[in-house]
Amino acid sequence: ANHYYLEKQRFLLEILHRVHEPLLQEQWLGLGQQIVSDQSQYVHYNEHMEQFYAQLSAGRLLARDVYYDGQQPEHCQQYVGLFHFFYNTREWSTLRQNICWARVNANPVLFLHALLQTLMKRDDYRALVVPKIYELLPAPYHHEQLLHTALRFNQANLQPSQALLPLNLPSELRNTSQWRAAMSEVQLLSIDAGLTPLTEDPGWRAYWYYINMATTLLQEPQDTARLREWCYWQLSQLVARYQLEQLEQRVPGRRSAARTWLLQRYGQQQSVGVEQQLRSWEQRVETALATHSCRLANGSHVELSRGQNWQLGLAELFPYDLSQLRVASAVASPQQLLDPHTMLRDVNFYALAARVLRLYRAYRAAFQPDYAQPVLPTEMRLVAVQASALVTYDEPVDVDISSLLPGSQFYADKRFQWPLTLQVRRLRLQQRPFNLTFQLQSNRTQSIVLRSFLTTASGTGPYYQLDAFLTVLQPGHNTLSRASVDFAGTVGDHLSYTELYHYVRLAERQQFDFPLNITTPSCGFPRRLLLPRGGSQRPLAMRLFVVATPYQFKARQAQEVSCDFSSGVSSWDALPFGYPFERQLEAPSELSGDNASWQEVAIVHER
Ligand SMILES: *[C@@H]1O[C@H](CO)[C@@H](O)[C@H](O)[C@H]1NC(C)=O
Ligand SMILES: *[C@@H]1O[C@H](CO)[C@@H](O)[C@H](O)[C@H]1NC(C)=O
Ligand SMILES: *[C@@H]1O[C@H](CO)[C@@H](O)[C@H](O)[C@H]1NC(C)=O
Ligand SMILES: *[C@@H]1O[C@H](CO)[C@@H](O)[C@H](O)[C@H]1NC(C)=O
Ligand SMILES: *[C@@H]1O[C@H](CO)[C@@H](O)[C@H](O)[C@H]1NC(C)=O
Ligand SMILES: *[C@@H]1O[C@H](CO)[C@@H](O)[C@H](O)[C@H]1NC(C)=O
User: Fold this and answer.
1) For atom 1 of ligand 2, which residue has the closest CA?
2) What are the Hemocyanin C-terminal domain coordinates in residue numbering (predicted)?
3) C-alpha to C-alpha distance for 95 and 85, rounded to whole angstroms
4) The pTM of the whole model exceeds 0.85
5) I need a surface site. Which of 13, 15, 258, 308 has the fewest CB within 10 A?
């Protein structure tokens, strides 16, 4: 990494530090006086920017201390405007000035969304490592009580700590002499937060935040039909995974509906508006299912069973941003259910999403034509599937909430410094690496795709897809093995905000060769959450379901795990995402035959 890179990287980490509080650094305050208004500095100067600039000139920008609500058209409009003021810049110096301006003048959450969007979508800045959303904006991701402890900052209540967990990060970035050099002058403080249920897990909730960010504001979206399908599949994966987690509920210390700072500030709302909105949407879909016709936004009616009309109806009735759940007119105060950071902690979310998915599958079952490719492999048989021991456990991990510490800790003579770090030590769900082994018979050389799902002991769903992969079978008997660390779309752990900053400083002093390959893709699913919590008294009984389909050379490798949807989404073939569960299945026989295999498995939770 050269010094241009390091300079950008450090600027980013400093400007985002304590983003919810006013900026204190003189250097950037000076640069933040004006937004760049010279239109020649932008690749495009579009109507979103004109509108934003008009609002800015009229003094009508969203105030800093107002709750940013993406449902409100005015809020959203300003967010899109600011995004273009970042995204369309030609030079780094213009972008940097606009970032400084927005950091000083814009609503902090609006600013953060617009900047993260830019860094996700501009491929020239994708090498920059951005701290995770729960480090940048810790408040909605942690318990109220814990936040108060951090905000009061009484060192006597905080435990000194020697190390950050887990020690074994990828690329050996912790537990090394370089780590000790980088962190030598940093005081480590820790708060114990105990066990983290799935709905409170920052990684689980941030995943949803990121994929929602990444799939919106696309500049020239390719193949939106496929993207919609992908989004509904992600939603069904989250709901299925949540439901499987509910099977083993006897977890000590599980707290229900704990309130966060965010909720305390804004009050917990009943989702009355959402319920009404969803009901009227359900009625529209039920009507379409009953009459086989649908009225499009432009007023014309289409016969859904004719030609490709079912796709028009799908686009009309199933928006991929889930606006069925959105309340059109602004409600007085924010709702946990509608905030992208807190949505997945609300148990109502899963129930509402399950209703959306039920109709989605019913619609597809009713109108989806035959698959564009054969689904039955010939001259082969899936003989058996085995899983190695499936073991979950609670693993201590530190989550950086240094952003909540008082600003006075971070300045000496108005110069930024970072002398201490505050970490929440949580016990989170983790699993031992495991393998799936497949036994197959084939009478010829052929390529197939194998999809593996986890489901309840009864085999009746929900179906959670663990993995899908392409393989070549040889004539005769084939034994294939797939390791959980290789499962597609999953990611491991990452460096904390504090460590990242100090590694950059170390590299600036030329004592460290800053690696350019340490970004943990934000749109990757946390690998440690693949398996639901096992049984601790007796093993949790589940079933694996595996299905084979022929492969026809249509694989697509995109970059959605790094939140880059500009070239679409990855897929092995032309089958719908989540196949065969993208639609309601009619007969149980669809899940048996030479192409499928079931295996009873059990998950044990280790103490
Ligand atoms: C930390 O480093 C020491 C010395 O290199 C090594 O023995 C130990 O296994 C490492 N611990 C982890 C958890 O990686
Ligand atoms: C990053 O690159 C270094 C040096 O080439 C390599 O040792 C390391 O394994 C890489 N890390 C990752 C996560 O790819
Ligand atoms: C409405 O939109 C559909 C699909 O784009 C199109 O086929 C149809 O012609 C449009 N109807 C009118 C009245 O514009
Ligand atoms: C392979 O061929 C043999 C002989 O024709 C046949 O008995 C067997 O069923 C075939 N196996 C598969 C998996 O198609
Ligand atoms: C998984 O398979 C790999 C390679 O065959 C093996 O080294 C590893 O020990 C296996 N892991 C488990 C948990 O069985
Ligand atoms: C598996 O094959 C059977 C016929 O043996 C077929 O009825 C079923 O639809 C297939 N299942 C899937 C999921 O492709």
Assistant:
1) 517
2) 379-605
3) 8
4) yes
5) 308
